[in-house]
Each structure stands twice: as structure tokens, then as C-alpha cells.
Amino acid sequence: MALYRNARAVAQVITTATFNYEFPVGGYYVANTELTPYVASGLLESVADSYESTTGAVLATRTPRSSDVSLLTLDTKLDQIEHIVEDEIDHHFHNRERWRGQRIGQTAVSWAADSLTPFRAISGNNAYGADPGDEAFVLGSADTPIISGMTLFDFHRLLIITQSVITVYKLRVIWGTGTMAVAIAAGQFTESMVISNSALGIVAGGSPSEIMMPRVACGTQVWIQAWNATNNATIDFLIGLHEYAQ
Q: pTM of this prediction?
């Protein structure tokens, strides 16, 4: 019977008390002889024929098993997961994106602006740049929310404008409310690999690179470090972010 082909369908006929349920097969109602295999397999504990005089349908009376409650819980969790996934997709992909460049004359709390001036990160010698100013100060504590009423954001995309060498870069996106060093020590960063050749007109394929990071509270600071095989290699970029009400 199609009704019993998956966990969700099974859970749809589960209850904590004996009840009558019509079991359709191919558009017809069946007697308990059709349900006997499910008793033998343990899916149903017991069944008994009864007759509904109004509709003429054969009904099956069943006694729930002790595991039925856990099946109900499973179905509830499946529904919850389904809604969570739908909400995540809807919020992340059907959202308003905002792009930012570097603020000219950065302050202690504001590092970004609505501009086309790129940020710059500078590499170390086959390592992340560690000299003062090698990191790009991307989002200060006063730079989010951009949209009034939003409480969370994620740095979603990065567009390379130019780079000084045409070899691969590893970028580390760091977020935190204290210093960059404290955030790194706490593991509050994500990494992305990028490469382009602006001399040939190939800049990250001409499209922004996707960045993966969790949503963080508005007011959280963001820095970006660069790693290249060449010491003091530079990479210039703009950033795109999503904001959320919750």
C-alpha cells in the first residue's frame, strides 16, 4: 500500500489512541485482510473490521504501538527541517544585496562606503600578510546595518578588481567584535581561493567569487588577509553582503 512506503506516510496514520482509519488502495477501501501483513511485520499492532453505514466504507480499527510516538516525533522533525531549509533558501537567495568599497579616510568605526574604491590586502612571503596595514579593514562596527531594521549580515561575495601577480591567492575573511588577532585565535574566519589575470582581461571570470560564512550580528567587524607565494603581492576588491532582520 502506498500509504506505508515512507516514514512520513506511516506517521500520518499514527495517533496515541485507537482510531478508525480508511485505507485507500487504488481508489478503493479495503478490509483488514489487506492489512494483515502489516500486523505481521509489526507496523500495526492489531486491526479489526468495522463498517461505516453513512459512506459504506470499510474501516480498520487499529491499536497504536509504543513506538508510534517516536514516529510522530520523526514526522514533526521532518516538517521542521523542511520549513528551515525553505526559509534559509528564501532568505539567502531572495534577498537584497548591498555592495561596498573602501571609505576614503577610514575612522575607528567606519571602514566601508557606498563607492567603487576597492579595498586592498597585501600578502606575506608565502603566508598571510602580517605587517601593520597588510590586512584590509573591510567593515567597521558602524558600517552595518546598511538597511534600517536589519540585525544580522553575512559577507557573501567578493569581486576582484586587480592583483599584482597572476598566481593564486588565499583570502582569509575574519569577523569579530574585538581585535583581529583575538578573532583568528577563536576560529572566527573563513577562507577562499581566488585567481585572475587582469592583464589579459580575466578578472575572477568576470564574476564575483562566492564567500561562505555564518550570519553575524550587525556591528561585527570584518577584516581580510591575503596569502600569495610572492611577498607583498596585492589584491584589490569590492565586497557584497546580505542583511537579515533575524
A: 0.63
| pLDDT, averaged in runs of 10, over the chain (246 residues) | 34 37 39 52 50 46 48 58 56 74 97 97 97 96 95 91 90 97 97 75 64 93 97 95 88
For 111, residues 6+ apart whose C-beta sits below 8 A from its C-beta are: 102, 103, 137, 138, 139, 140, 143, 221
Whether 224 and 172 have beta carbons less than 8 Å apart is answered as yes
What would the DSSP string read from start to end of 28-65? Answer: EE--GGGTHHHHHTTS-S-EEEEE-TTT--EEEEE---
- If asked whether residues 142 and 240 sit together in one domain, one would say yes
Phi, psi dihedral angles at 27 (to 5 degrees): 90, 0
User: Regarding beta strands 189-194 and 24-25, do their DSSP bridges make them parallel or antiparallel, or are they unpaired?
Assistant: unpaired
Same domain, 179 and 223: yes
* 62 touches 19 (CB < 8 A): yes
190: β partners: 173
Structural domain boundaries enclosing 56: 2-92
Question: What is the rounded CA–CA span in Å between residue 172 and residue 223?
Answer: 8
Nearest Cα to Cα of residue 123 among 231, 6, 243: 231
Same domain flag for 140 and 197 = yes
